[in-house]
Structures are given as structure tokens and as C-alpha cells.
Design a protein that fits this description.
The complex is a heterodimer of chains A (317) and B (522). With 317 residues, chain A is α+β, with helices and mostly antiparallel strands. Chain A is 65% helix and 10% strand. Chain A has ten helices and four strands, in the order ααβαββαβαααααα. Chain B has 522 residues and is of the alpha+beta class. Chain B folds into three domains: 208 residues, Multidrug efflux transporter AcrB transmembrane domain (Multidrug efflux transporter AcrB transmembrane fold), CATH 1.20.1640.10; 76 residues, Hypothetical Protein, Haloacid Dehalogenase-like Hydrolase, Chain: A, domain 2 (2-Layer Sandwich); 131 residues, Gyrase A, domain 2 (2-Layer Sandwich). Classes of the chains: A alpha+beta (317), B alpha+beta (522). Chains A and B meet through helix 4, strand 4, helix 5, helix 7 and helix 8 of A and strand 18, helix 10, helix 11, helix 12 and helix 13 of B. Chain B: Keywords: Cell membrane, Membrane, Protein transport, Translocation, Transmembrane, Transmembrane helix, Transport.
Chain lengths: 317, 522
């Protein structure tokens, strides 16, 4: 049986030569992300902004206009309605109500009373008080910062500072561009999508580490090649794996996006974007940055001699 | 790496058998499981509320309200008792966690101490010689009180929820003064919220009949309380009741909803202490009004016609039948020591939960099949082996989830699907390496040996970094996110095992069987 070969056995793509292009793309992506973030911000879900979210299934296909005007007439502040997957499924978003927690309960009850018999099923009701929303926001930021830090420290421990710095910068890029994605698409940003961002950080670094591992090995193997040459060789040697793993992950995520249900579709979209971005950042940012950060073979050898390298990683050459 | 010791082989077999054993209950019905002998693992995956349907409520216990109330009580005691003892004072007021006052005459210092000592409970009374006095809630007393108030609240919440017949509720303390309530199968928690929304503090007071409510000023030691039922004229009525609690709801041992003269009423029974006090009060106050107060509202204030000595009575008012039933329930379960506020509520109906499970199953199975096919197409026989390892990985994830009774949520299912995609990474790394070594002119055995050996450090580094992200997600996340972190972490660990050990076993088995030695099917 002929096996699928996505790439020639030994590709010789001059990645390092086009590093300016990669970095330019990265800069554009980041600038764009930051710009959309400041222009339209994130569409914070109920988790982070506090407020009320209800998912209802109506008896007949929902008349959103009618519902909107009727719910809008209630004294519960702005109401946003959107169809959610099916014509009979409606997502109702209420702003945080003025006043204490009791006021939120009253708003939920007001909506229920107004919709009455039209609704076949209250599929989901979520209410997050202002204080909890604030706490969740803070915890989310902490989680993101700490995971970046934790991952950076691990890389530093396993490799050395050039690698840690390069992977950390690539990660920051991934996080910014992913947040930009959520801002640009205005997909609801909630606790679950935050989990997507952190997972992307994990995936992207996973990818980066594999290439770095190869860089380290290549540098020990060759005594005479220049650093860019070696970086390029490491990238080419791992390219097939990079692409294959991205493909299998994207296959699984694609299946989740198509069939996993409406509730986690935004989350899955973020993951899919992140896998692409994470793969790009390894090739286009992390490795070129290694070069710019002045990685030299000498440092690798010293590090190896000082016993910082893992024992189970003898040179193959 | 091409040699596998007996011990390794044995370990792999044991792990896989245990995995199958723990994963198996998920394929059987509950009824079948109950018939199995007890030593067989019979736990199914524990589904989160977002999958099985149910409500999640985060409540806050208003402990500060308890302190405020306590301090207000001290202010009241100082006012009433010092006046009764004819001790002059000025500047009575609150200052942080203290009640402060100063005595007009420094000669009264000792007497004031004696008078107030009985009224301050665990607070600290200080009256210095210059006549300035304070009653302070110490930090330690407050901390202890906080703990006991929250614990007591949890107990009462539990009792009230148990009375509603909810099955398997989870009621747990969270943080300092919060209570997490999870009610599987309850998709509209309104009734539970109603029940938890009242403190249900019941007390019996004598009515101060010398004072006309709303006209005369309320004397110290009494307070004006609204009545539950409005006057026929439509005006809100009130009663001036004595602050002193004659009998409290704490002494109730039973309360039942019943009917009296066609009206729904709550009949109650006191314990011996309560019966004694109730008897004494009614005997000494025949002909006076006796107010029944629930949460600072007078339910009714009947005239005491005769001493009630049996410790039994009824509470009547303008109640609907449901209200009487709820009141009886609340009185039976006991009063909450503090008010509760709902900070967060998430409820999922059974329909959405079932849909999510179905969607999750479809997505994971399809993802699994597609990734398996892709691996076979990309790596041939070795790819098939990796596909088998992937299947075993899924079984192991299921087994660990069941065995640990970790909660599977919808994002958790997403975590499993993501793991399916990422789990093959280890095999991809190994196989790519083997291909490379073959290209470099190594023989099959040597290529496989080097492939596994060389790929290992990258695999470990890559997985540990993702694991770091998963651990942080678990620490900072709540509910469903934790579910995602758990399956992601479990998946990472099991996939390292299956991708490295299981495929190696298969590859080595294949080598030993003496298949073509020239070209590797990869």
C-alpha cells in the first residue's frame, strides 16, 4: 500500500532565509490583534462580565423580532437574542442588573413569565454575580500569566535561556493573536474559551519543544555548520512531524467543531485557530528568534558539559 | 529499546487488563452493575451537571450581617440595661467592631461591669476608670464565629434540600464563607432558592400593648415590626413587640402542615425546655397578645386565652397550602444563622445535557476513526499499530476517569477529543525518526531502537509542558474547565504509556515474528 507522504523525505526549505517574511506576518497579526482588541474589545460572556444567560428551546421556530421587542419592554435593561444552532433555540443575554443579587433573580423570573408557554424547555440558565465575574476574570489572568511563566521556566531548566526566551516570545505571540481572533470574530469569550487559550499555549509549546530538541541535537552533531544552517536543518527534519501532528489534531478538532454541539463551537474554533498559529509560531517565530538572540554553538557545548543536558540524550552522530 | 523484559511485558499487560476492567462498567447498564460482586469495579464515569442536567448554586453566607446584628444587640443591651440600673451614659455608638459609650459618673464603673457582663456573650467588655467603655468582638471570636456560622448554614442548607427530596445533592463549603450546592436533575432551582432565601427564624414575643404602633414612639426594649397580613383598610399594620424572646424556634422539635377549621396552619411541638417556657409565659400572661415572629415579621398575634402547657401549638395566618408546607419544612429544618445570597447559578436542562453527550460521543468516535485511518494511511502497518494504541488510550482514559471518579464535563469531552488528535504525536515523532534512521542506512532493528530512544526526550518535554498548562487550568478553573483540565492531563499521561509502551510491544513482537527484515513497513 502506498503511504501518504505529505512532504519529500528530506525537504530543503530555506526557512531561515525567509525569516523576515515570517516576522513581518507575525508583526501584522499582532498589530491587527491589538488593534481589534482596542477597537471592539472582547465579547465577554456571562462568566466574566456578570449577568444572565438563558438558552431556551421554543415550541415553534422562534420569532426573534417579536421576542426581542417583548423582552425589551421588560424593565431588565438591554436584552440580546440570537439563534443558537437551531431555529427553535434562542440564546438570551441580559446585562448585569442594577442592584444586588436578588435583582438578577427577579430578571430571570421576569423573562420566564414573559415567554411563558412559548418555551418548551429552558435548556440552560446561567447567572453570574458581579463579584464572581470579577474573581473569575482575575483568576483567568493569573492562570494565563502563570502558565506562560511555568512553561518558560521549564524550558529554561531543560534547555537554556535562549530557548526559554524564544519560546516565551512565541507564546506571547500566540496568546495575543488568539485573543485577537476572539476579538475579531466576536465569538463569546468565556471561561471555556479562556481554557482554549491556555490549551493553545500548551499545544504551541509542545510543538516548539520538539523542534528545539532537534536543534539542540543538531548543534551537538555538527561542528562546522553555521547556526542558521543548523536551525534550518532542524526545522526541515521535523517538518514532516510538525505537519502530521497538526493534521491529526485538526482532524479531531474538525470533528468536534462539526459535531460537538453549539455550546463548545466557539471554544473549538479557538483551538483550531490556535493549532495553526502555534505551528506557524514555531517555524516562523521561535526558531528565527533563536538566531536573533545570538544562539551560539559554544553555549550549547558548555551547557552540555556542565551536565545540564539530559543523560538519555546521547549524540546520534 | 528493542528488548522488552518480562517485567515490562507483565506491567503492560496488568495495566491494560486493569484498564479494561475499570472501563467496562461504562458499557453495562446500572441494573447489571448492581448484580456484580462487590470486588468488581462497578463505577461508571461521573458525569458533570452540564451533561446530566442539574443546577449549580454558589451561595454566600452573610456572616458580616451576623456581626452587625450582634453589635446592634449590644447597643440595645447597653441602652436598656444601663437605663434600668440607673447608670447615666453618653456617646453610645458603633466604632468598627466595637460598641463604645462613656459613663457619666466614674463611680458607676464597677456596677456597669456587673450589669453588662451577662449580655455580651463571647465579646470583650472593657470599662476603664475614666468611664469610657467598649464591647469588642475580638478577631479570634469573629473568626471562630465565622466558621461556626458557615458550618451551621451548610447543615441547615443540607437539611432543607434533603426535605425537598433532591437526590444526591452535593453541599460543600467553598472559600471562607461560601457554599457550593449542586443538585443533579434539578433544572429549575427556583424552589430550592426560595427555600434557601429565608432564614426562617421563629420567635415568640409579648406585644407591648401600651404603645400604639405608628403613633407613640417605640420605647427602648421594644421594636416595631410589620405584620404579615394587611389591615382590612389596606394599610400595613404593625405591632410593637418586646425585644425579649420568650420562646425561640430553636426549641422546636417538629412542625407539620395541617388544617384547622378549614384553614392551612402549621402545628408545632416544643422540646421540654421550650414547652416549659411556653407554658410559663402563657400562664403568666393570660389575656395579653402573644406575637409569633418569623424573620422580623409578625405572622399573627393571638390573645392568650389560657395557659398552654403541653408544648404544642399552631401558627395560623393568611397562608396558602404550599406556603404552610414550606413553613413547616423550614421550621423542621431549623433557622439559618445568617442570610444567604446566590452569587452564581448555572442550570442545565436534561435535554441539553443529553444532546451534549450525544454530540460528544459522535465527535469523539468520528475523530477517533479519522485519526486512526490517517495514521494507517501515513505509516502503514506501524500506523495501524499506533491506531490500536490510540484506541487503547481511549479505553485507559475512560478507566482512569471511572476509577478516580473524576467528573466528566462537556469541555472534558473536548479534552478527550483533543487528546485523540495529540496522542499520536508521540508515535509520529518515533516513526519519523525511524524513517530518518532508515534513510541514513541503518538496519530495521537498529533504526527502531534509535527511533524510540531519540524521540523520547522530545516526547517527555513536549508532554510535560502541556501538563503544566493543564495543572494550572485545574487550579484556576472552576466546574467544567476543571473537567477539561482533568481529561487533558489524564490523556497526556495515558497517551505516553500507550504510544510508547504499547506500540513498542507491538513493534518488537512484529520484529520477533521474523517479518521482512529489509524494508520497514513505515
Amino acid at each position: 500500500m502506498p503511504l501518504i507522504r505529505l512532504f519529500p523525505a528530506e525537504p530543503r526549505i530555506p526557512f531561515l532565509a525567509v525569516r523576515y517574511w515570517f516576522l513581518a506576518i507575525a508583526m501584522v497579526l499582532m498589530t491587527g490583534s491589538i488593534a481589534t482588541f482596542f477597537v471592539q474589545g472582547l465579547n465577554f460572556g456571562v462568566d466574566f462580565r456578570g449577568g444572565i444567560l438563558m438558552e431556551v428551546r421554543t415550541e415553534a421556530p422562534a420569532d426573534l423580532e417579536d421576542m426581542r421587542s417583548r423582552l425589551g419592554a421588560l424593565d431588565i435593561g438591554p436584552v440580546t437574542l440570537q439563534e443558537f444552532g437551531e431555529p427553535t433555540d434562542v440564546l438570551i443575554n441580559l446585562q448585569r442588573q442594577e442592584g444586588a443579587e436578588d435583582a438578577q433573580m427577579e430578571a430571570i423570573n421576569a423573562v420566564r413569565a414573559e415567554l411563558g408557554d412559548e418555551v418548551a424547555e429552558y435548556r440552560r440558565t446561567e447567572f453570574v454575580g458581579p463579584r464572581v465575574g470579577e474573581e473569575l476574570r482575575r483568576a483567568g489572568m493569573m492562570a494565563t500569566l502563570l502558565s506562560l511563566l511555568g512553561i518558560g521556566l521549564y524550558i529554561w531548566f531543560r534547555f537554556e535561556w535562549h530557548f526559554a526566551m524564544a519560546s516565551l516570545l512565541a507564546l506571547v505571540h500566540d496568546v495575543i493573536v488568539t485573543v485577537g481572533f476572539f476579538s475579531f470574530t466576536q465569538i463569546e469569550f468565556n471561561l471555556t474559551t479562556l481554557a482554549a487559550v491556555l490549551t493553545i499555549a500548551g499545544y504551541s509549546i509542545n510543538d516548539t519543544v520538539v523542534v528545539f530538541d532537534r536543534v539542540r541535537e543538531t548543534m551537538r552533531k555538527y561542528k562546522k555548520k553555521s547556526v542558521p544552517e543548523m536551525l534550518n536543518e532542524a526545522l526541515n527534519q521535523t517538518l514532516s512531524r510538525t505537519i502530521l501532528t497538526s493534521v491529526t489534531t485538526l482532524i479531531a478538532l474538525g470533528s468536534l467543531y462539526a459535531f460537538g454541539g453549539e455550546v463548545i463551537r466557539g471554544f473549538t474554533a479557538g483551538l483550531i485557530w490556535g493549532v495553526v498559529i502555534g505551528t506557524f509560531s514555531t517555524i516562523g517565530i521561535a526558531v528565527p528568534l533563536l538566531y536573533y538572540l545570538g544562539l551560539k554553538r559554544a553555549t550549547m557545548q558548555t551547557a552540555g558539559e556542565s551536565g545540564k543536558e539530559q543523560a538519555g540524550n546521547p549524540s546520534a552522530g | 529499546m528493542v528488548h522488552i523484559s518480562r517485567a515490562q511485558l507483565f506491567a503492560v499487560i496488568v495495566v491494560m487488563l486493569a484498564g479494561l476492567l475499570f472501563a467496562l462498567p461504562n458499557l453495562l447498564s446500572r441494573a447489571t452493575l448492581d448484580q456484580l460482586p462487590s470486588w468488581v469495579p462497578n463505577q461508571q464515569v461521573n458525569l458533570g451537571l452540564d451533561l446530566r442536567g442539574g443546577s449549580h448554586l454558589l451561595l454566600e453566607v452573610d456572616v458580616d450581617g451576623v456581626f452587625e446584628e450582634q453589635l446592634a444587640g449590644f447597643v440595645d443591651s447597653v441602652r436598656v440595661e444601663l437605663r434600668r440600673a440607673n447608670i447615666g451614659y453618653t456617646g453610645l455608638g458603633l466604632e468598627g467592631n466595637s460598641v463604645v459609650f462613656s459613663l457619666r459618673d466614674t463611680a458607676d464603673v464597677d456596677r456597669a461591669r456587673d450589669v453588662l457582663r451577662d449580655y455580651i456573650g463571647d465579646a470583650t467588655l472593657r470599662i476603664s476608670d475614666d468611664g469610657s467603655g467598649s464591647i469588642t468582638l475580638s478577631d479570634q471570636a469573629m473568626a471562630e464565629r465565622r466558621i461556626s456560622v458557615v458550618q451551621q448554614s451548610i447543615e441547615i442548607v443540607r437539611r432543607r434540600i434533603d426535605e425537598t427530596g433532591t437526590r444526591e445533592p452535593t453541599i460543600a463549603r467553598q472559600g471562607e464563607d461560601r457554599i457550593l450546592v449542586q443538585l443533579p436533575g434539578v433544572d429549575d432551582p427556583q424552589r430550592v432558592k426560595d427555600l434557601l432565601g429565608q432564614t426562617a427564624r421563629l420567635s415568640f414575643h409579648l406585644v407591648d400593648e401600651d404603645v400604639v404602633p405608628g403613633v407613640d414612639s417605640v420605647p427602648p426594649g421594644s421594636r416595631l415590626l410589620p405584620a404579615q397580613e394587611a389591615d382590612p383598610s389596606g394599610q400595613v399594620r404593625g405591632y410593637v413587640v418586646r425585644n425579649r424572646v420568650m420562646v425561640s424556634g430553636d426549641n422546636l422539635v417538629d412542625a407539620q402542615a395541617t388544617f384547622q377549621e378549614g384553614q392551612p396552619v402549621v402545628s408545632f411541638r416544643f422540646d421540654s425546655v421550650g414547652a416549659q417556657r411556653f407554658g410559663d409565659t402563657t400562664r403568666n400572661n393570660v389575656g395579653r397578645l402573644f406575637a409569633i415572629v418569623l424573620d422580623e415579621e409578625v405572622i399573627s398575634a393571638p390573645v392568650i386565652r389560657e395557659p398552654i402547657l403541653g408544648g404544642r401549638g399552631v401558627i395560623s395566618g393568611s397562608f396558602a397550602t404550599q406556603e404552610v408546607q414550606d413553613l413547616a419544612l423550614l421550621l423542621r429544618a431549623g433557622a439559618l444563622p445568617a442570610e444567604l445570597t446566590v452569587l452564581e447559578e448555572r442550570s442545565v436542562g436534561p435535554g441539553l445535557g443529553a444532546d451534549s453527550i450525544a454530540a460528544g460521543e459522535t465527535a469523539s468516535l468520528l475523530g477517533l476513526v479519522l485519526v486512526m485511518l490517517f495514521m494507517a494511511a501515513a505509516y502503514g502497518l506501524f500506523g495501524l499499530m499506533a491506531a490500536c494504541a490510540l484506541l487503547l488510550n481511549l479505553i485507559l482514559i475512560l478507566a482512569v476517569l471511572s476509577g478516580l471518579q473524576a467528573t466528566l464535563t462537556l469541555p472534558g469531552i473536548a479534552g478527550i477529543v483533543l487528546t485523540i488528535g495529540m496522542a499520536v504525536d508521540a508515535n509520529v515523532l518515533i516513526f519519523e525518526r525511524i524513517r530518518e534512521e532508515v534513510r541514513n542506512g541503518r538496519g530495521p532493528v537498529s533504526a527502531i531502537d534509535i527511533g524510540y530512544r531519540q524521540a523520547l526526550s522530545a516526547i517527555i518535554d513536549a508532554n510535560v509542558t502541556t501538563l503544566i498548562a493543564a495543572v494550572l487550568l485545574y487550579n484556576f478553573g472552576t466546574g467544567p474547565i476543571r473537567g477539561f483540565a482533568v481529561t487533558l492531563a489524564i490523556g497526556l499521561v495515558t497517551s505516553m504509556f500507550t504510544a510508547i509502551m504499547i506500540t513498542r510491544l507491538m513493534v518488537v513482537g512484529w520484529l520477533r515474528a521474523g517479518r521482512p527484515k529489509k524494508a520497514l513497513p513505515i
